[in-house]
Amino acid sequence: MAHIDYYFSPLSVFTYFAGDRLEKIAAKHGAQITYKPFDIMALFDRLGAPKPADRPEGRKIYRMQELRRIRDSLGLTMNEQPAFWPTNAAPASYAIIAAQEALNSTGKGDMAALICALFRATWEEERDIAQDEVIADALKAGGFDPMLSMTGLLAGAETYPKNTEAALAAGVFGSPFYIVTDTDERFWGQDRLDQLDTYLGTL
Question: What is each CA distance from 150 to 5, 27, 89, in whole angstroms?
Answer without folding.
Answer: 25, 30, 15
